[in-house]
Amino acid sequence: MLTKEQKLRRLKSLSRLEMEVLFYFCQSMNDDEICAKLDNISQKTLNGRRTDIYKDLKVDAPDKEKQDYLSQEYSSLIPIVCPDENALKHWRPVKLEENQNTPEEVKTVSEEKQKESEVKQIKKFNFGIPFFAFLVVLIVVGAYLLGKIGSPNLSPLPPLPTYTIPPTYTIPPTKLAVVVITNTVLPSFTPTVTIIPSDTPIPADTLIPTPTVQISFSDNFDSGIDPAWKIISGKPYIENGALTASEDTWLKLSHLPWKNFVITFDFTGGDCWIMDSYNEIGVRGDSVNDMVAFTWGNCENVWGEVTSGNWTSLSDRNGSTYGMNHFTIQVVDNKFTASVPDSFDKSIIIPDLNLPSGTIIFRLGKGSMLDNFEVDSLP
């Protein structure tokens, strides 16, 4: 029998999706009411989340009695860890640490290890003379075959990926009109202008420098969603002066493409693990299928490259963010950096990146909140 403290720790380890189901179940809602409350999820999805709850809470009871067990054992504890819907909206799971096993869990682990040891003892094979005789024969046959066949040819390693360099375009020679001004002294002191046609071509490798355009964009969402944001999918809306969404939402900043720039924003929300629910910002992007992306949850984050819809991880997943955090994303040439003060500072370099510039794409997870978004161009 678990103690109250052990039950509370198991409740705190539930994901937000599991806590939503358990929260409304303990308010005596039936399945139809719970599905309607959770954006009309299907009965199949509800049953799946309920099964995960039984597993995480170690509910050891017949199937017909599991719901009664939940109601009896956990209804009085839910208000302690999640008192209202506002707390549910900002629910963040806490992982069960391995060094905090309950006595019952320690006993179970010990029993399992003892059983494994007994199985290993049963499966031990007494290696005797027949086995070693067979081994000698096998070695002799192998040596003979190697002498006949020769050293095996090792397959070459697959070639490194190559990247096609975009074609360059040469400006064809054009006829210029060379203007020669002569200051011949005439009685009226009027200079004469003589136009002499010339066939001198413009050198193909001569480029006229253009001034650097400093682009900037900011949106604090106090006056709604800026028209520069284009909704790819989802349902974003403004709540308490910040951008949030009722479902996972993709947005694209339809502004001039940036090459080198720095992005800052305030953000809170998301599940612990990326595989459950995640938030993402794509840079140097053309679409959600082609971009360099930084993806994060509350317990991990990672840089990656998306090419034709295929994701490739480019960094480790270390780093956690809980509560409201101030993010900084910086892109300079082929170096990409993401950081949060007192949490992580993660950089990658992509040597052969074929995305010299691009727009910015943002994935806002359901219930997450974005505020004070700002982009500043760098030289």
Describe the structure.
The chain is an alpha+beta fold. Among the domains are: 4-100, no CATH class; 216-377, Jelly Rolls (Sandwich). Helices cover 26% and strands 30% of the residues. The protein has helices at 4-12, 16-25, 31-37, 43-56, 66-74, 78-81, 85-89, 103-123, 129-149; strands at residues 176-182, 192-198, 216-219, 229-233, 236-239, 242-245, 249-258, 261-268, 279-287, 290-296, 301-307, 310-313, 325-332, 335-340, 344-349, 358-364, 369-377. The strands form four sheets. It has a seven-stranded antiparallel beta sheet, with no helix packed on it. A hairpin with a 4-residue loop joins strand 10 (290-296) and strand 11 (301-307). Helix 2 (16-25) packs across helix 4. The chain is flat and about 80 Å long.
What is the assigned CATH homologous superfamily of the domain at 216-377?
Exo-inulinase, domain 1
Which of globular, elongated, flat, extended, rod-shaped describes the shape?
Answer: flat
What gap, in angstroms, lies between the N and C termini? 65 Å
What is the count of helical runs?
9
Give the topology string: H per helix, E per strand.
Answer: HHHHHHHHHEEEEEEEEEEEEEEEEE
Percent strand: 25-35%
Going by CATH, the architecture of the domain at 216-377 would be Sandwich
CATH class of the domain at 216-377: Mainly Beta
Which strand order spans the largest sheet, edge to edge or round the barrel? 4-7-16-9-10-11-12
Give the % helix: 25-40%
Q: Tell me about the biggest sheet?
A: 7 strands, antiparallel
Q: What's the CATH topology name of the domain at 216-377?
A: Jelly Rolls
The Cα radius of gyration reads 33 Å
Number of strands: 17
Average pLDDT figure: 79
By helix and strand content, what is the structural category?
A: alpha+beta
Which stretches of 5+ consecutive residues score pLDDT under 50?
105-110, 122-127, 174-182
